[in-house]
Amino acid sequence: MKCTRCQEEILPQDSYDYYGQTLCEDCYIAALQPPKPCDPTAVASATATRKQLGQTGTAGLTPLQQKIYAYIKEKGKVTKEEVASFLNLPPWELERQFAVLRHCELVKATKEGQQIFLTLW
Ligand SMILES: [Zn+2]
Question: Which InterPro entries has this protein been placed in (predicted)?
């Protein structure tokens, strides 16, 4: 049998069922652990990894993450829509980048009324 995601040959005993898809162990774990914006374990490990690597502040971020960080720093407080349109990002991409920035304790979301704002940590 084959893994639905990566097309790798897998033995039936090594296959995992994920919502009707047959996945190998790696893909199954990846499917179970999408980046979660508010996962304390992920925060701890992301922060620990960065500390190990001697990274603080924006060191170790991708150019895109640095742009998002710089934009929020400049504005102080922005909505996700503003960031998305400023950087021309689809919302899902911004969510992904935001999850990383949140994990690294650089950017956080604050709710004011009905609006969600992104501010520096
Ligand atoms: Zn796979």
Answer: WH-like_DNA-bd_sf, WH_DNA-bd_sf
- CA of 36 from ligand 1 middle (Å) equals 21
Domain that holds residue 14: 1-33
Same-domain status, 28 and 47: no
pLDDT band with cut points at 50, 70 and 90 for residue 72? very high
pLDDT beyond 60 at 30: yes
Phi, psi at residue 113, to the nearest 5°?
A: 65, -125
Q: How many angstroms does the Cα of residue 28 sit away from the middle of ligand 1?
A: 7
CA distance 24 to 31: 10
Burial class (CB in 10 A: 0-12, 13-18, 19+), 83: buried
CA of 13 to the centre of ligand 1 (A): 14
Report the alpha-carbon distance of residue 94 to residue 47 in Å, rounded.
20
Q: Are residues 67 and 112 in the same domain?
A: yes
DSSP letter, residue 76: S
